[in-house]
């Protein structure tokens, strides 16, 4: 979907590995990986877990190849494809002009319902996490939030005092134009005048 995206940017690494390994079993036509790899090449990967999962696919291998590796011969091995490092490792550009991001939070699931919005200015290239931090600085009673660091990056556990719960199967979902974001708050970079919604949701 979406010009080669498989699920979201986090699922791409394992999906590419699986599709490459099982390509001989596809019917009625071969899998064309060009679109999927074009998504990977243009993404600025920053999460260590995502990088670890996508790198094998970029050199035409999968985690399954580990069982057959000849460690004595690895010194003479070279990647099967010449790929630029920057799309995988990412680069951090200089932050320039300011942008305005519209950010709202909404809860209709638990306790007293609430729906609040704010518009904040941040440097161009800022992440959604930085947008949330500015919103929390300007209106801490409304937009305060808590996070925890996971192997996939920053995970938002609570907004406006309302915490996600695995027992209740609730979480904070982030949307843009009604669509779930493909990246987490620590790496997603909103564009000027974008409206980001944090909606307390269930799964």
TrEMBL record:
Residue stretches in coiled coil: none
* InterPro entries, alphabetized: Cbl-bd_prot, Cobalamin_Transport, Transcobalamin-like_C
Keywords assigned by UniProt, alphabetized: Cobalt, Cobalt transport, Ion transport, Secreted, Signal, Transport
The answer to keyword Nucleotidyltransferase applying to this record is: no
GO terms (BP aspect): cobalamin transport; cobalt ion transport
Instruction: List, alphabetically, the GO terms of the cellular component aspect.
Output: extracellular space
Classification via Gene3D superfamilies: 1.50.10.20, 2.170.130.30
What family does the entry list? Belongs to the eukaryotic cobalamin transport proteins family.
Q: What is this protein called?
A: IF factor
